[in-house]
Structure to design on (341 residues):
């Protein structure tokens, strides 16, 4: 059996995003090469599943794709040991196929972020303790003021391999900080259910670039029209209309790999907002979205500058764009963002 060619590629070049918009053929329409790719992917997936350690720890975090008999691996795994097990499983199964390995290792990511935080430690005479779990970086330590805490958060979020930052840094004399929101990443295309079982589909996410965390999601579904709902009589049915609405992550009760469940009902119109693209901006082209998102999946609110632009205020506060009265919901959207705390 031939040796497997394994190469390390920049995780910035994510073919899964390029392939998303392409038409997928099914059944008898598959070409011979597509059938071979599908069979090879299934064989490799089965081999990874049969490894007890990978099945328990890393299997569900690996994005495995096969095209033109080239295997591409992306996602986040625990460390070099997991990577070796993955490569050994492929060698035993796939023969001499080429492998593009874009897997990001938590142990290496922890070292990288810790090194990047070193300059802040020297400048502010503090010590940070860093860890990573499948790309989600946590920062611990104690600092003298909130500005340093936010600077550390933005520093960690500056690493494009980070999925999100959980900021557990404490400020001296500030007392016990309330626990922030859990780290949540709704899947694009996933179904979201309200308490009354009205469903909608995730179209995009709104991310805080200062910590790479999702603060809200844009979902599409059939909701009661605001105007007809207000004007309808009790014995009349309010007209349903397909709309894009924004739901804050605080409203999420539970997320799975394919769906999500909310604390709110679809008729609680004060708990979500109509989407207006005028209040949001797209990231710069060179900004790398956190895995598993693609560039078109992400928007920023106007409160944040485009990623890559310099912050004029070194204290850690982001400059705001003046908002009209109608733009108040953008401020409301961000009001409960814990910035990773």
């Amino acid at each position: 059996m031939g040796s497997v060619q394994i190469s390390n590629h920049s995780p910035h070049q994510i073919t899964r995003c390029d392939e998303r918009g392409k038409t997928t053929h099914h059944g008898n329409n598959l070409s011979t090469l597509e059938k071979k790719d599908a069979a090879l992917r299934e064989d490799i997936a089965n081999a990874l599943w049969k490894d007890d350690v990978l099945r328990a720890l890393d299997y569900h975090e690996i994005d495995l794709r096969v095209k033109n008999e080239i295997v591409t691996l992306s996602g986040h795994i625990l460390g070099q040991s997991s990577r070796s097990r993955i490569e050994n499983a492929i060698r035993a199964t796939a023969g001499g196929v080429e492998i593009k390995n874009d897997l990001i290792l938590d142990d290496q990511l922890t070292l990288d972020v810790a090194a990047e935080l070193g300059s802040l430690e020297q400048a502010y005479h503090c010590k940070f303790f860093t860890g990573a779990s499948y790309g989600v970086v946590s920062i611990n330590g104690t600092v003298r003021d909130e500005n340093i805490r936010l600077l550390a958060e933005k520093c960690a979020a500056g690493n494009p391999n980070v999925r999100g930052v959980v900021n557990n840094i404490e400020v001296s004399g500030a007392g016990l900080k309330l626990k922030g929101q859990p780290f949540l990443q709704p899947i694009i295309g996933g179904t979201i259910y309200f308490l009354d079982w009205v469903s909608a589909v995730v179209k995009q996410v709104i991310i805080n670039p200062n910590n790479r965390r999702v603060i809200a999601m844009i979902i599409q579904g059939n909701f009661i029209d605001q105007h007809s709902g207000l004007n309808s009589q009790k014995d009349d049915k309010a007209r349903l209309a397909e709309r894009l609405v924004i739901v804050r992550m605080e409203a999420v009760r539970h997320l799975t790999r394919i769906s999500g469940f909310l604390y709110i009902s679809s008729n609680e119109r004060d708990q979500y907002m109509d989407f207006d693209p005028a209040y949001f901006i797209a990231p710069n082209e060179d900004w790398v979205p956190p895995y598993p998102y693609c560039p078109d999946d992400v928007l920023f609110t106007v409160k944040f500058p485009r990623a890559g632009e310099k912050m004029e205020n070194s204290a850690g506060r982001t400059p705001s764009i003046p908002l009209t009265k109608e733009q108040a919901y953008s401020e409301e959207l961000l009001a409960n963002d814990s910035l990773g705390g």
In short: The two ends are 51 Å apart (CA to CA). The helical segments are 15-20, 32-50, 52-57, 80-94, 106-124, 146-157, 226-231, 328-335. The chain has a mean pLDDT of 82. Residues 77 and 118 are 24 Å apart (CA to CA).
